[in-house]
Write a structure and sequence with these properties.
The complex is a heterodimer of chains A (440) and B (130). Chain A contains ten helices and seven strands. Chain A is of the alpha+beta class and 440 residues long. In chain A, a hairpin with a 3-residue loop joins strand 6 and strand 7. The two termini of chain A are 34 Å apart. Chain B is globular and about 35 Å long. Classes of the chains: A alpha+beta (440), B alpha/beta (130).
């Protein structure tokens, strides 16, 4: 839409320029016509006619222009005025045949406006003038001064009219063609400008895209290095703790070492959470076929090391109904399942004889529904909304970073999915995740 | 197949991690001899002259990824061009703190790499390797 108005603006601006230029020319021509009329008055003493008709014509023209500056009516008036000057000159020169050519001069001048319709008033006036005066002369009126011939045959009259019509027609044609050509030029200029603008925009976009990609890559590199450099000493500490645990230890030392170990693990978990968060928010979704059985095996293997300490083993049950291939981002699914299953292990109910977490997956051509059920301590309903918030931890006994479920929610949303929570304290928690099948 | 001499090499720029790996393997009797290499370059320089004494080669190499000057992947690139009898003898395992998917993928794609392990090396992980 804006595109069209800009073209229209350009079009109007150009035509306005043509109009101004032509208007200026008209001043000179009209002045010359008037002066020429005065000059002709010398021959047959027609001062009254030269001043009266010529003057009235000029008044008519300038008055229209002054009264209706926004309309192009004055252009039609100037067309009439040229016709009147022709008639005036013919009269002043007592029907001198060459004075008929004045109409052609007017017709040619009018081309400058690039409007073929301006030929019409002139042509109409010429027809009316010739018909009237020709007829009056035919009737034998004296002092009509239409032609120097005593008698003008119909054939001469017709040829005269026919040639005049051709001149008007051709001048109109040129005006029309000039206008068309002007419009084509405007359009080309406009298209060219638009093209250059688009090109500039595209270049700017490409450049900022490139910059973004670069900074994204640098950030990725940064996150990678920082996480590695932060985690490397932690893993060394865990290694040393592991060495201590392999030997015999005084119970006091043993207790302290285990406290040290849980702190190190907590810090490491926190760094991993931040890493997962940063990965999820920056990296593109990498769609591939996901085999839930393999994925769950991997996730459980990773978690095996987690429940070795003071916590009881939690049975992980899986139920997968697949008939259709499911496509999504495997590493993001891994983050989701890892966080949810580890939460179930972490927040198991000590009163429950048989702690479990059940992961059931139902896949269709359009989506996957993942349901993670546990019989853990559960979440109070007033906290259901808040658990997905960043850094929210339910109680002081919470051991995590407060990022886990926030990351889960962010990751699910990145996969265009929805996560819902049902939970009752003492009974357990159910997470329902609905993910679209991203098979293309 | 039980190797004759259970010689293991560990390549890591971190002295503490070298110490941990050595201690864990010795305490669990996983290896008789642990060769600790502080850089990938040092490890390659150690392996190269052994092509005519293959019996002295380690049967396992634990390789770190993030090391200055020459990373674990740089090591693998150069390892490719070592004589075949060296390559046939040694099994390489990546031992790293990295959780990066790309690192794991790159390691798994490499024909010389048998496993991808996360640090620290402890008795449970060693038990899985046995």
């Amino acid at each position: 839409m804006t595109q069209q108005t800009t073209y229209q603006d350009m079009h109007d601006a150009y035509l306005l320029q043509v109009k101004h230029k032509s208007d200026k020319l008209m001043n000179y021509f009209l002045f010359s016509f008037f002066t020429a009329g005065l000059g002709l008055a010398v021959f047959y003493d027609t001062w009254l006619v030269a001043i009266g008709i010529g003057g009235l014509s000029l008044v008519a023209y300038y008055a229209t222009k002054w009264l209706l500056p926004d309309s192009d009516a004055y252009q039609y008036i100037v067309s009439l005025v040229f016709g009147i000057f022709m008639a005036q000159y013919i009269y002043q020169m007592h029907g001198l045949f060459e004075m008929h050519f004045i109409a052609f001069i007017g017709s040619a001048i009018l081309i400058t406006y690039q409007n073929w319709k301006l030929q019409i008033p002139l042509a109409a006036l010429v027809i009316v003038h010739h018909a009237t005066f020709g007829y009056l002369q035919y009737l034998g009126y004296d002092k009509v001064y239409f032609t120097q011939l005593d008698y003008m045959t119909l054939q001469t009259f017709i040829i005269h009219g026919f040639l005049a019509t051709i001149v008007f027609f051709i001048c109109g044609l040129w005006a029309w063609q000039m206008k068309k050509q002007t419009e084509v030029q405007i359009e080309q200029t406009y298209e060219m400008g638009r093209f250059q603008e688009e090109q500039a925009q595209r270049n700017a976009l490409l450049q900022s895209n490139e910059e973004l990609r670069k900074s994204n890559k640098e950030l990725d590199r940064f996150v990678y290095s920082v996480s590695h450099d932060l985690r490397a000493p932690l893993s060394s500490m865990l290694g040393v703790v592991g060495l201590c645990e392999m030997g015999e230890m005084d119970p006091f030392i043993e207790k302290n070492v285990s406290l040290l170990k849980s702190s190190i693990k907590k810090l490491d978990g926190f760094i991993i959470d931040i890493l997962d968060y940063s990965r999820n928010s920056r990296l593109e979704v990498d769609t591939q076929e996901v085999h839930f059985a393999d994925l769950l095996t991997d996730v459980c293997n990773n978690l095996k090391f987690m429940c070795t300490e003071d916590q009881r083993k939690v049975e992980v049950r899986t139920k997968i109904e697949n008939g259709v291939a499911f496509h999504s981002d495997r590493s993001r699914l891994s983050i989701i399942l890892n966080n949810l299953i580890s939460n179930s292990i972490r927040y198991q109910n000590p009163q429950e004889a048989d702690p479990f977490v059940e992961v059931s997956v139902a896949i269709t051509a359009s989506s996957a529904d993942i349901r993670i059920t546990d019989n853990g301590i559960g979440i109070e309903s007033k906290n259901h909304e808040k658990v997905f918030n960043m850094f929210y931890r339910v109680s002081t006994q919470s051991v995590g970073s407060g990022l886990g479920l926030y990351i889960v929610k962010e990751t699910v949303e990145k996969l265009n999915g929805v996560i819902k929570l049902e939970s009752e304290p003492g009974k357990g928690t159910v997470f329902n995740i609905h993910l679209p099948n991203l098979a293309s | 197949m039980e190797p004759k001499s259970r010689k293991v090499m560990v390549v890591d720029d971190n002295q503490i991690d070298l110490y941990i790996a050595e201690m864990v393997m010795k305490t669990t009797k996983f290896a008789d001899e642990v060769i600790c290499m502080g850089s990938a370059r040092e490890a390659l320089d150690y392996l190269k002259p052994l092509h005519d004494r293959p019996e002295e080669l380690p049967y396992l190499i634990f390789l770190d990824i993030n090391m200055p000057e020459m990373t674990g992947f740089d090591f693998l690139n150069e390892y490719k061009s070592l004589p075949e009898n060296i390559r046939k003898k040694c099994i390489i395992m990546m031992l790293t703190t990295s959780l990066d998917e790309n690192d794991r993928k790159l390691a798994e794609e490499n024909v010389f790499v048998q496993r991808f392990l996360n640090k620290p090396l402890d008795k449970d992980k060693i038990a899985q390797l046995k």
